[in-house]
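Usage

Read records sequentially. Each one opens with the input sequence:
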Amino acid sequence: MAHVKAGGTSKNNHDSPGQRLGVKVFGGQKVKTGDVIIRQVGMNKRAGQGTFLSRNFTIHAAHDGTVKFVSRRVKSFSGRSVPRTEVVVE
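and closes with the structure output:
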């Protein structure tokens, strides 16, 4: 009967890599069609003119141009308007 006795358990020994979220292209910088502008979880930033939102809420450039960030008031579920940042490619 070969076995190890009273080894105990190990906790907190698993770790996942970071998701590399955040702003990839800043305001005033040039982008090409399909370039990733922002990687995010949920709709923190909104996709505006010249951009589109993919299934995982990543904002891409719809055409070549310059990135611009605009503050916009958006109606929330409760009906009140809250400020949100909108990403625009001009």
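Summary fields computed downstream for this record:
- The longest strand covers residues 65-75.
- The two ends are 73 Å apart (CA to CA).
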